[in-house]
Structures are given as structure tokens and as C-alpha cells.
């Protein structure tokens, strides 16, 4: 066991540790606004607009297992891995490389992800997440995460695979207001 | 009927018409980003942070009867009236006048609005909308509008007033992704 004394904590060897601590600030954890600032500066959306704050909250909510609303280093790294996955997914569906997913591309994306959604519902979703007829990366991520979370909530309750679920009011509000 | 010829359109006499046209720009309608800019500059939240864009989308969605995602002059005026109502409501529940609604104040607000929500669900809602333990005006509005819209969707389907609703998958997604 010689040599373990005085060794730096594992995180200090990690190339992302310095980046994380700069973003996290004094409390050593990253909240939604710190994440927004970091993602806006990263230029990941390909626009100069601030990265959608609600997308940051949704992403933190997705990974925040200790329910503090903030991310430690491991959650932060997980989030960056997830974001890379979303970015590849987004670029795959942005077939004309316009930097955004247009309604017909979104249609294909949602079908390709295996969701069975009516044209009316699809239009409602596109209307909610588009800016001038285009869906940008930050809104795309919010839309995909919400759709997945809601579908998962539904499936967990649809134990008989009937495509119909009986919700009590409080449970319905819990499922739908959390994201 | 003499005298109606040559009269200006009613809007031109309205003191808000000039403000509306300045915000609406060339297309003569206000979209979510134009509304965000206008509400950020208005200082209505009492902070320097940009007004939450998703709150703007939710508010437009609430009033957008022709489903364009944009507001004409009458919808814009309706929205300002609604916002004034929300602001008064917010100030009523901000009992310590901190400029934000803290968890215990939110608890009282939601009860006072007549919602019957379990402590767990209430905590989830507060966790989703707070910033550093405080709920600011823009997030408060988003939270209240969503809670009302979801409750209305639920009640419309709960025709027997049983407190339980059977949702088909597509209908569930439609209700919950629209806001
Ligand atoms: Ca922090
Ligand atoms: Ca595209
Ligand atoms: Ca307060």
C-alpha cells in the first residue's frame, strides 16, 4: 500500500477536473445557471443565443440522483458524455446541415427513435420547440429528454402493455411537472 | 355612418399600439424571443437575468388561438393583462417581500389556488422551478400556468370526478409536451 499516501485524489488527474472546478465555483457543484453559462460559451448550439436554461434544468434533473439540483464532478462528466451523444444524434437528423432540425427532419427523428405519435401530437411538439420553423440543439435536447421521460413514466405504469394508463391526479402532476 | 370613412383603425388610438409595433418588428407579430427581450427590458422579474424564454413560449401558447406561435396586438394586450394578474398574485405570496417566492411561500400559494398536491409532488415542483432556493417571477408564472393547464387537461377527462383518468399514450404525450 506504499505510495497511496499523499497521492492526489483521482479527480485531480482527470483532464476535466480543472474545467469543472472553474465552472462549479466556491460550492464545488454545478447548478443550472452555471451549466447554462458553460454551454453558452462552449458554442455547442452553433448560435450566439444563450443555451436554454430549462434544458439545463432538465439535464441536471435527469442525472441528479441525490436531488440537490446541482452536479458534482461525476455527474458533470456523465452529462458531457450524454450531450455528446445528443449532438451526434442531432447532426444525424440535420440532414441538410442547416444547423437546425426542421419539421420534416424532426418527424423522421421521432419516428426513428421508435415513438408512435400522431401527426397532430407531432405538430404540437414541433410548434412548442421551434424558433422560426427551426429546432435548435438546446431545444432539441429538451424535447428529446422530455419525450423519453414521459414515455418511460407511461410505460412503467402500463404494465399490461395496453397503451392506456390510469393516472391519479397527484401522480399525473408529479410525472409531468418534474420535467 | 358618416365619419367612419377615413377613421384610423382602432389600434392606432390605443396607447399600447406604438409599444407593440416596436416589439413586433416587420412581421407585425410578437414571437417568443421578441417577448423575452421586451419582458427582460421591462424589469418585471426584478432581476437582471433574462426573462425565461420557456415562460414566454408557454404564455404565447396559452393565448395563441390561431396556432402561429406569434401574437397579434389583441393577444399581446391580453398577455400583458394576464402578466399583471400574475405579478399581483406573486407579490401576494411573497410575504417577506424578498422579491422571490420561497418554498414555504410556494406551498401556501399552491394550496391557496386550490390544488391538492402531496408534499412529495410539491417538493418536486419546487425543486424544478427554484434558483438557489428561491422561485423568481418568470419561473413562478411558468409553474402556475403549467400546473393550471395540466390540471385543466386532467379535469376535462375526469368526467366522473373520480380523481383518476385513463390516458391513451398519444393523448398523454399531447397534453404534456404542449406546455
Ligand atoms: Ca456552484
Ligand atoms: Ca436541418
Ligand atoms: Ca419571499
SSE arrangement:
The structure is a homodimer of 179-residue chains.
Chain A: H1 17-24, H2 32-42, H3 53-63, H4 73-93, H5 103-112, H6 119-129, H7 137-157, E1 164-168, H8 169-177
The complex binds calcium ion (3 copies).
One calcium ion binds next to loops of chain A.
3D structure, described in words:
2 copies of one chain form a homodimer. The first copy, chain A, is an all-alpha fold. Helices cover 57% and strands 3% of the residues of chain A. Chain A contains 8 helices and 1 strand; from the N terminus they run αααααααβα. Chain A has helices spanning 17-24, 32-42, 53-63, 73-93, 103-112, 119-129, 137-157, 169-177; one strand spanning 164-168. The longest helix of chain A has 21 residues, at 73-93. Chains A and B meet through α3, α6, α7, β1 and α8 of A and α3, α6, α7, β1 and α8 of B. β1 of chain A pairs antiparallel with β1 of chain B, so a sheet runs across the interface.
